Amino acid sequence: MFYLIGLTAILMASSKVRYDLIALFVLVTLALSGILTPTEAVSGFGATIIIMVAGLFVVGEMLDRTGVARTVGDMILKQGKGDEVRLMIPLCVGAALLGSVMSSTAVVAIFIPIVMRIARDTGINAARLLMPMSFGALLSGMLTLIGTPGNLAVSDALRDATGQPLGFFSFSVIGLIVLAGTVLFFALFGRHLLGPLMADGSDRPRRADRSFAELYHIHGLDRVEVLRVEQAFTGTAAREVERNAPRILARRRRGPRGNPHTALYSPGMDFQQGDLIVVTGSDAQLAAFSGLPGIEPVQSFFNDMNTWIDTLGILEVMVHPEAKIRGRSITELEFRSRYGLEVINVLRGTKPLQEMETTPLKAGDRLLVTGKWTRLDEINSTGRDFVIIEEPAERAQSVPNSNKLWIAMIILFAMIAVSIGGMSITIAVILAAVAAVMTGTISTNQAYGSIRLETLVLIAGMLPLAQALDKTGGTQIIVQNLLSMAGEESPRAVMFALFFMTMALSWILSNTATLVLVAPIAVNAALEMGVSPMPMAIAVLIAGSAGFASPVSSPVVTLVVGPGKYTFVDFLKCGLPLTLLVMATTLFVIPLVFPF
Asked: What is the pTM of this model?
C-alpha cells in the first residue's frame, strides 16, 4: 500500500502525467491487487462530495453568466486598485471568513469565477491569486466549530473524555493568527513562487488586446456618441429623425419591468421618450444632430462601455480567401437578416470603402461588425465566409445574462442560508443548481458544459485511498510509529508528533476521516500523560486544515488545480514553507492559550 502511495506521489511530482489519469491508475491498481473490491474501488464516484462539486460548478457558472462574479470582482478591484497584494488579501480573508460558516468547497467554487474575472480584467496571472484564495478557504476550518465536519469529531472526542466539548469560537484566536501569517507569507514571499506576475509571462501590466475605442479608431470612427431622446417620435417624425441622423447603430429602451433592452437599429424604428441611441459620424454631423429639438447628448459611447458591453459588442472579421460571398455587396447579401449583425465599416487594405453597402467584397476585406455577442460568436460558424481577426479587450467583461443578476443572488444566498440552517450542503447545492436552470440564469447545455470532469475524476479516484489505507492497517502503523518516536515525557513533543501525523494523514485521507481517527488518540494520550487534553485536541484540529503541500489533500485545493494550471511542485514550493510556518506558530501559541 505504501509503495502505491509513493508511486502516486512520484507521478504527481513529475508533472508528466495528468492528475485525473493518475487517480484512475490508483483506482484500477487497488481493484486489480485485491486490496479493494471493484465496488469499493469505484465507490468514490458515488460519494456525496462528487455530486456537491458538480453542482457547485453549475452554481459558479451561474455567478459568472449573470454578473455576480463581475460585481464582486469589481468591488475587490476597486479596493485593490490593480495591486496584486491588495487583490489577494480580500480574496484570501474573504474565503476564510465565508468558509467558516459554510462549506469551504462551496466557497472555492463560488470564488473561482470571481478570481478568473479579476485576472482577465487586470492581466494578472490567475495562479498567483487562486492558490492564496484556496488556502484561505482551507484555513476556514481553524476559525469556527462548523468550519469543517472534522472539527465536530474533535469536539465529540473531548466531550466523551472530559464532558466538555469545544465552543463555537473556542480556537478562533489560533486560526486568526494562522490566517494572518498565511496572508503575510503570500504577500511577502509565496506569490513569487507561482509564476510571473502577468498572465502573458511579463513582469509588468500589459494589455495585448485592443479596446473598443481602438477598434473603432482603426476604422476611422473617432466619434461614437450616446444620445437621449427627450420626446416621442413616431411615423413621419421618426423618419425625419432618421434622415437627419448621421448613422444610428443601436437603440436601448427600458422594458415594462425596468430592464433595458438593446436592439440594432433598423429603418422604421420609432423613438420613445427616454430611449438611448448610439450614433456615429463626423463632428459636424453629430453637432447638428444633437442640436435638434428632442435630442439630448449624454456622453461618448467609449466612456459608457460598462452599460452597453453585455448586449452590444463588436468584432473585426476578414473575408475568407475561399468565401462564397466574394463578389457580392453587403446589400446583396442582406447582411443584417442573414447574420443578425450590422456592418459599421469595411477596410480594404488600410483604406475604408466609400460605398461599402454596394461595393462587392473581396478576400481580405476587414469588416467591423456590431450586434449581440451570441450572433457575433456565430459569424465564423456559418460556412467559411469570415475569419475573426480581433475582438475587443472588454469582451471578457461581458455578461450574457446580466438582467438576471438578482435572481442569481437570491439563489446563492438561499443556498448559503439553508446550509447554515442545517440542510445538507449537498442537497442545498443540488437545489441551487436546479434553480439556476429553471430560472433561466443558465441553459441546460451550459450547466452540463460547466462541469469539469477531470476534477471530478481526480477526487473520485483518490477517495478510495483512505479506505485502502485503513483496510490494510497502514493507518495504525503510521499512528503507532509516530507516537513511539515522540515518547511520553514531553507534552510538547507529543503535540508535535500528533500535529505532524494529522497533517501527513490529511494529505492522503480526507480531513474528516483524519480527525475522526486521530482526535481520540490525541485526547487519550494527553489523559495518560496527566495533562489537559485541550491543547492536544486543538493541535490536531489545526493540523487537519493544514494540507497545503498536496493538490489532493482536500477538494478545497483540488478545485483550483485546473484553473490555476498548477503542478504538484507548485504545491510543494508554497505548501511546505507554509506548513512549517503554521506548525511553528501553532506549537508556540497553543500552549500559551491552552496551557497543559
From this structure: 0.58
